[in-house]
Specification:
This protein has helices spanning about 5-10, 20-35, 45-60, 65-70, 95-100, 110-115, 120-130, 135-145, 150-155, 165-175, 220-225, 250-255, 275-285; strands at about 40-45, 80, 105, 185-190, 190, 195-200, 215-220, 230, 240. It is mainly alpha-helical and about 290 residues long. A three-stranded antiparallel beta sheet has the order 1-3-2. A two-stranded antiparallel sheet has the order 4-5. A two-stranded antiparallel ribbon has the order 6-7. Strand 4 (about 185-190) and strand 5 form a beta hairpin. Helix 2 (about 20-35) packs across helix 3 (about 45-60) and helix 2 runs antiparallel to helix 7 (about 120-130). The relative contact order is 0.10. It binds zinc ion (ZN). The site of zinc ion (ZN) has 7 residues, from strand 7.
Length: about 290
């Protein structure tokens, strides 16, 4: 069987439309680990928290232990688990995986295939995402799993640059999980929902993955910021483009009223936005002129 078929096959035990995304999420996580660290193994107790977070945020609304996919993925020929003593996986129990220092890794056969064909990583990643998740979630999942498919896909054209998976986490904490424009701060089951770490200077244009270039925005304001409807002045006030039109009360309440409002600053422990990045956004993205406040 071809590799793409094999990774998409992983979900097929799902029945009656029930979402079975635990193993696909572990597989994406393992591909991200391979991309960053080569074929070094993953110690269960080190990956546990990160995996649990992935399952909580992108898995179905049922609690599942990360031990479950860590063990059960071994049945698909893509992933293997060994204990410190060299034994096979002790089973899907957190205690045993921890106490026996179980480590998982992609199988030797899959690693060889990934090394042989540089395009395979993105093919597998895209295939897993396509058969398991809505497109609107793909980027968020990759970020959370530390998997950078775009870098692989662009590698032919230019030097690949890795997006830093820590960027989102840093920006979220710096802004205390709150949209810096409107203050939106929703959570679902212990994860912030509808909030993004936006780049002020675009990543594709040498914008660094740093808090000085990152701002926490809700999904609507992130989209409008990237489209140039919203921007910022040098003294950290929100600009709303005069080209933006919205006549209904929702557009007025969620967009027009932001004009002139002060942009929230990050907590004192974090550096503020770099003026040069704000100026870049004002120049390259924002649709001037701004509306009067
Ligand atoms: Zn907002």
């Amino acid at each position: 069987m071809e590799w793409v078929e094999r990774v998409t096959h992983v979900r097929q035990w799902s029945r009656g439309g029930e979402r079975a995304s635990h193993k696909p999420l572990l597989l994406l996580y393992a591909l991200g680990h391979f991309q960053r660290n080569g074929d070094s193994s993953i110690l269960y107790s080190e990956a546990e928290e990160h995996l649990a977070g992935l399952l909580r945020e992108f898995g179905p609304p049922r609690t599942t232990s990360p031990a479950y996919p860590f063990h059960h993925l071994t049945s698909d020929g893509l992933w293997e688990v060994r204990t410190a003593a060299g034994g096979e996986s002790p089973g899907p129990r957190v205690g045993a995986l921890r106490s026996q220092a179980a480590r998982g890794r992609l199988t030797t056969e899959l690693v060889a295939a990934l090394r042989h064909d540089p395009h395979l990583l993105s093919q597998l990643g895209r295939a897993i995402l396509d058969v398991n998740f809505e497109p609107s979630l793909h980027e968020d999942i990759c970020t959370a799993a530390g998997l950078d498919l775009e870098a692989v896909e662009l590698a032919g054209a230019r030097f690949p640059r890795r997006r830093d998976p820590a960027f989102r986490a840093q920006v979220m904490v710096a802004y205390e999980y709150q949209c810096a424009f409107c203050g939106y701060d929703g959570w679902l089951n212990g994860s912030a929902v509808g909030l993004d770490a936006a780049h002020v200077r675009w990543w594709a244009f040498e914008g660094p993955d740093e808090v000085t270039n990152g701002i926490c925005l809700c999904a609507l304001h992130h989209k409008l910021f990237d489209k140039g409807v919203l921007g910022m002045t040098g003294d950290r006030r929100v600009n709303v483009s005069a080209h933006y039109v919205g006549r209904g009360p929702a557009a007025r309440d969620q967009v027009h009223t932001l004009a002139g409002r002060r942009v929230f600053s990050p907590q004192a422990a974090f550096p503020g936005l770099d003026d040069a990045h704000i100026a870049w956004h004002a120049r390259e993205v924002f649709r001037a002129p701004a509306r009067a406040a």
